[in-house]
């Protein structure tokens, strides 16, 4: 609406905002591969070792790679340079150690600096489960949004200006922790105990 930012949710709720960040995604540049005989479907389709499914001598890295992620039980494609770097290390190992192949199963991670906000996202934040906010975005500009899939299983987190929370979230995702345990840990970080002799 003119002069105001409002977000209308599917349940009819209207949220007022001073800033809105829109992520629209990207389309992989895979047109040049269409006549290669390789399987192309929203990127070059690969197995869990990042090899093209129709050719064990072809590997893919980065935005164009759509590989089978065993931890997620399906194909994924990640659009961030941190993934390309990590995936390249896995592919280099698999090319040079064909007798000891490693599956590529990263915890997704992206980040962006937007003025005085450092936004970091780990895992998947697009699930159909619940989400909770830890911290007060209006009070100190530092908070974490935690996301679930299914029965309170932690699936991802979006973190603003809180590096320690990112460390805890990535650990929790790697360990397969549930939402409640991570939420309690982060809430303890927002309200640390006051030790006698130290300022509050």
UniProtKB/TrEMBL annotation:
GO terms for cellular component: cytoplasm. Coiled coil: none annotated. Residues 4-88 form the FAD/NAD(P)-binding domain. InterPro entries: FAD-oxidoreductase/Apoptosis, FAD/NAD-bd_sf, FAD/NAD-binding_dom, FAD/NAD-linked_Rdtase_dimer_sf, Reductase_C. Its cofactor is FAD. Residues 109-180 form the Reductase C-terminal domain. Keywords: FAD, Flavoprotein, Oxidoreductase. GO terms for molecular function: oxidoreductase activity, acting on NAD(P)H. It comes from the Bacteria. PANTHER family: APOPTOSIS-INDUCING FACTOR 1, RIESKE DOMAIN-CONTAINING PROTEIN-RELATED. This is FAD-dependent oxidoreductase. It comes from Mycolicibacterium rufum.
């Amino acid at each position: 609406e003119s002069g105001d930012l409002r977000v209308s949710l599917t349940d009819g709720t209207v949220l007022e905002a001073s800033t809105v960040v829109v992520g629209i995604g990207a389309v992989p540049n895979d047109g040049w591969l269409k006549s290669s005989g390789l399987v192309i479907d929203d990127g070059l389709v690969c197995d869990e070792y990042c090899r093209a499914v129709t050719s064990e001598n072809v590997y893919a890295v980065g935005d164009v790679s759509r590989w089978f992620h065993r931890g997620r039980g399906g194909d994924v494609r990640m659009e961030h340079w941190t993934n390309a770097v990590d995936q390249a290390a896995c592919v280099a190992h698999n090319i040079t150690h064909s007798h000891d192949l490693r599956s590529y199963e990263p915890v997704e991670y992206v980040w962006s600096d937007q003025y005085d906000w450092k936004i970091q996202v780990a895992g998947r934040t697009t699930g159909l489960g619940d989400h909770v906010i830890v911290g007060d975005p209006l009070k100190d500009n530092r908070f974490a949004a935690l996301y679930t899939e299914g029965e309170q299983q932690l699936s991802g987190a979006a973190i603003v200006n809180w590096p320690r929370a990112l460390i805890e979230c990535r650990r929790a995702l790697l360990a397969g922790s549930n939402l409640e345990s991570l939420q309690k840990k982060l809430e303890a970080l927002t309200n640390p105990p006051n030790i006698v002799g130290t300022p509050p």
